[in-house]
Amino acid sequence: MIALIMAGGSGTRFWPASRAANPKQFLQIAGKRSMLQLTVDRLLPIIPIHDIYIVTAASQADLVRLHLPALSSHNIIIEPFGMNTAPCIALSVEYLKQHYSLDTTMIVLPADHVIRDVQAFHSSLQRAEQAAQDGALLTFGIVPDYPATGYGYIEAGTERQKGLYEVDRFKEKPDRPTAEGFLRQGNFFWNSGMFCWSIEAISAAFSEHLPGVSEITSRIAELWKRGNQDIGEMYQQMPRIPIDIGIMEKASKRLVIPVELGWSDVGSWKALSDISPHDEYGNYVSAEYLALDATGNFVHTDKFTALIGVHDLCVIVREDAILVCPKERSEEVKKVVEHLQQKKMEQLL
């Protein structure tokens, strides 16, 4: 098995900590190592470093090298600019086809997830590898422990073998009553954005469902063979669509493995708050603090903080910016980034 880690995102929902020059996957959010480093660390017991590949935007390639000095430059696949997961994976698959046989199994992972149960993670990869040898496209469904409205869901159908189910359909992020119904039904799982397949199977899927993408990557491969790395003009022709919509929703042979991994996509400050240690009143503060009649707050700062009569807030302090919002609205941080972009306030992006 080889691994492809997608590390080209902008992490806008983690503003003001995540910036264009140092996005979320390069931050020490869940420990003393960056999210990208932790993702590689989880893989190393079962996949050697020379079989781990990072795909990232050209603007972030130097950051990848800085965070992963043991990784060969050969193992960094560079997008001219960030697109979406379908073009990102298609480009990577074309690159990997030049170095591995078509029956090679690959795992595809985002660079910025938290997985606490590493042993269960390794076991799920080994199960997926066996299933992928039959030509299926596999995804990992997180067993939900509450009716989340911030995740897409996978509806599992017929059980093909123990712990391995056909995918009936993918569902977009639901409202609360719908999510509660999913939990009661018992065969719905959070869409983790992690996948497993053989190079041959995913190549065939692109040819069938996104033939235009396959054509572009074939032309890019010809440029690479001639030593030309200037692929920007061709890559710009790619559709900006996620792999879920472009491939997984259309494929016929797709399977889901339900997993319990202590997983979080850490997709917002609230999500980080949910997995962070806290005091007896539910407060997390990264510096010394005093809390008076204050509960459930998440404060990320290096300054002494006094909390008086406030509840369920996210407060993120940086030298040039401060974010204050209710936890339940932390997903809206991306609107701040959009505002800064419109006002051309690049110094804050």
What is the averaged pLDDT score?
Answer: 92
Rg? 21 Å
Strand content: 25-35%
Instruction: Count every helix, treating DSSP H or I runs of 4 or more residues as helices.
Output: 11
Give unreliable regions as ranges: none
What structural category arises from helix and sheet content? alpha/beta
Provide the CATH top-level class of the largest domain: Alpha Beta
Q: Number of domains in the coordinates?
A: 2
Number of strands: 17
Keywords, separated by commas or semicolons:
single chain, 349 residues, alpha/beta, Spore Coat Polysaccharide Biosynthesis Protein SpsA, Chain A, five-stranded mixed barrel, four-stranded mixed beta sheet, 17 strands
Walkthrough of the structure:
It is a single chain. Helix 3 crosses helix 6. This protein is α/β, with parallel strands linked by helices and 349 residues long. The model has no long low-confidence stretch (mean pLDDT 92). It has a five-stranded mixed β-barrel with strand order 6-9-7-8-10. The chain is globular. It folds into two domains: 2-264, Spore Coat Polysaccharide Biosynthesis Protein SpsA, Chain A, CATH 3.90.550; 269-348, no CATH class. 30% of the residues lie in helices and 25% in strands. The chain contains eleven helices and 17 strands.
